[in-house]
């Protein structure tokens, strides 16, 4: 279910969580940013090498899966970096399992479907309905998650206890004002906006350096 990376056993583990329709390989090479850390890169339910039904999955269920990964590694607490839907899962983990998360970076995350820019939201709706009609269940299930979830409130965000870094691209599929609202409602959260689209983290060095510095404090 997961890909353990390199790193020392003394520091808290660091979990890197991919987005919808991807797998842990999107973070290939990222473990070199964190010398002395044990880096865990899971494939989430229904992705990559992980099985599991995603037809009724929501982000609290995915948070349960992530908590189970930590238990399997014997980790009482960890740092988390989640990209896109992975960031949504990390936010839910912070709420349901607050003692499990020390620091969290959420990259291109949203707290409700309206946080996605209209053009992208329309594309998600069209894709979901196409795959549903074409009877391509897995693809329809993936787009359903993006179309219907998540459903967090600002009150939920204000309950988060972990130290949080909110990151996004200046041309992200997540609305800029939505990203700002997430950061403004998480106590003492930091925000960092980078040049690029939703995938800025994987196309330049500034986002990687921000992650390295945040988890190195």
CATH architecture label: 3-Layer(aba) Sandwich
Q: Approximately how much helix is present in the residues? A: 25-40%
Query: What fraction of residues sit in β-strands?
Result: 15-25%
Alpha-carbon distance between the two ends: 29 Å
The mean pLDDT is 94
Largest sheet: 7 strands, mixed
Give the topology string: H per helix, E per strand: EEEHEHEHHHEHEH
Shape: globular
Q: Give the CATH level 1 class.
A: Alpha Beta
As laid out across the biggest beta sheet, the strand order is 1-3-2-4-5-6-7
Give a count of the beta strands, DSSP E runs of length 2 or more: 7
Uncertain regions: pLDDT < 50 for 5+ in a row?
A: 1-8
Overall structural class, as computed from helix and strand content, comes to alpha/beta
Q: Superfamily at the CATH H level? A: Alpha/Beta hydrolase fold, catalytic domain
Q: Give me the number of helical elements.
A: 7
Number of domains: 1
Rg estimate, integer Å: 16 Å
Q: Quaternary state, please?
A: single chain
CATH topology: Rossmann fold
What topology emerges from the helices and strands here?
Blueprint: E1 2-4, E2 14-17, E3 39-42, H1 59-72, E4 78-83, H2 85-96, E5 101-107, H3 118-133, H4 137-148, H5 154-158, E6 163-169, H6 176-185, E7 190-194, H7 205-216
Parallel strand pairs: 2-3, 2-4, 4-5, 5-6, 6-7
Antiparallel strand pairs: 1-3
